[in-house]
Write a structure and sequence with these properties.
globular, D-Maltodextrin-Binding Protein, domain 2, 20 helices, alpha+beta, 428 residues, 47% helix
């Protein structure tokens, strides 16, 4: 009896030992992703993580849905300070200096610097790398990236006697179109606005959609200086303010970021500015023919880039950091970058993603998908500095003070610049 039991227990013990060894050999990486729980995006991320695990049986990915970008950044830094950081996270490209200053992340070159890794880093659009590299190091890898584009309702253009297939090419045209597209009832109340540029959520970002075409950048590449009070900046803000207060083709005051696409679907507005990340949302919900165009030019074309990058946290183990790089490479392979772009509306982050059979076919049937990509040649880095949250707040406050009529644009930008200079003094 003892012998029979012994013969059963030996293989069982061997199985248990090998299971324990396999468990010990598995590296778990925590992946913070900026979205509230639920919805199609979390299903897609869960699926991509599962696909990665299948290809890499020694690595377990644990996605954590951490709320907004802002909430995810706070949670990531708090976890870093308490000694239990995520291994990797998707955070705004503009969070790069903040994460460096907190000593929370490592450059990708410090984790893995093979010839293959170097080629991978070079495979992304240069416009996206402007917010991902500093001091000769790569701190972020582009994942869900965007530019601002103009959407217009072709039916409303036709009704107003405008060419439904032609977007306004410059600021003068946008104002002229908006005047024709704004409708009022007999009492003078507006029933349809010509244009909406949202000014809540990311006012500074939408503002860069005006300052960039006006031939000016808001900060230096080192993130230590801002230029909020330059004449071209003030001129851009004056144009934005005048759309509402002087020309009355846009609602006055602060326009909500979140409700702008809804206003477009409900035909309350004929033209809107928003992220290309809303493209799939517009495609699924607009019950009319719509167009997508690059932002109107002033002195030039141009938009800031936007969106999120992969970052690798410093306090993760070396094994976890290596696994995180492997995961980022997997998630940004051409086929996957193409699929992510098609599923979400974000710009596929590397040129070879656009050359895949799937993406080529998609663009053939839905040509506006390539507008944001084509705009990249004119794009600049999104506003990003050291102590970015406070610097950005100074600018946002100035923009909103002008749009609500509390301050004239020149005074608002002078105050914003003074505050930014004070904040950045110690980083010079």
């Amino acid at each position: 009896m003892r012998t029979a039991l012994g013969s059963i227990w030996k293989p069982l013990a061997a199985i248990a030992a090998s299971t324990a060894l396999a468990a010990a050999a598995q590296t778990e990486i925590t992946f913070y992703y900026p979205v509230a729980v639920g919805g199609p995006i979390t299903k897609t991320i869960d699926q991509m993580s599962a696909d990665f695990e299948k290809e890499n049986p020694g690595i377990k990915v644990k996605p954590v849905y951490a709320g907004t970008y802002q909430e995810t950044l706070v949670k990531g830094i708090t976890a870093h300070k308490s000694g239990t950081p995520p291994t990797t996270a998707i955070l705004l490209s503009t969070d790069m200096y903040t994460l460096i200053d907190e000593d929370a992340i490592v450059p990708f070159e410090d984790v893995s610097n093979t010839a293959d890794d170097k080629a991978w880093v070079k495979s992304f659009y240069p416009a996206f790398m402007a917010n991902s590299q500093t001091g000769g190091k790569t701190w972020g890898i582009p994942f869900q990236r965007s530019t601002i584009v103009l959407y217009w309702n072709k039916e409303l253009f036709k009704e107003a006697g405008l060419d439904p297939n032609k977007a306004p090419a410059n600021w003068k045209e946008m104002l002229e179109y908006a005047q024709k597209l704004t409708k009022r009832d007999p009492s003078g109340n507006v029933t349809q606005w010509g244009v909406q540029i949202p000014s809540s959520g990311f006012p500074y970002w939408l503002f860069q959609g005006l300052t960039t075409p006006n031939g000016v950048e808001l900060m230096n590449a080192a993130g230590t200086e801002t230029y909020f009070d330059k004449p071209e900046v003030v001129e851009a803000l004056q144009y934005w303010v005048d759309l509402g207060r002087k020309h009355k083709v846009m609602p006055t005051g602060v326009i909500e970021w979140g409700t702008t696409p809804k206003d477009f679907f409900e035909k309350k507005v004929a033209m809107i500015w928003t992220t290309t990340g809303n493209l799939t949302n517009v495609k699924n919900n607009a019950k009319f023919d719509f167009g997508v165009a690059m932002l109107p030019a002033s002195k030039r074309r141009g938009s800031p880039t936007g969106g999120g990058n992969f970052y690798v946290f410093k306090k993760a183990t070396k094994e976890q950091q290596s696994a995180a790089v492997k995961f980022a490479k997997f998630m940004t392979q051409p086929e996957r970058a193409a699929q992510w772009g098609m599923d979400t509306g974000y710009v596929a982050v590397r040129p070879d993603a656009w050359a895949t059979a799937k993406m080529t076919e998609y663009v053939k049937g839905f040509p506006v998908a390539s507008v944001a990509r084509d705009q990249l040649q004119f794009s600049v880095a999104e506003l990003s500095t050291h102590d970015n949250q406070r610097v950005t707040k100074a600018l946002n406050d100035g923009i909103q003070a002008s749009l609500t009529g509390a301050k004239e644009p020149a005074a608002a930008m002078k105050d914003a610049q003074a505050e930014a200079t004070r904040i950045l003094r110690s980083y010079k």
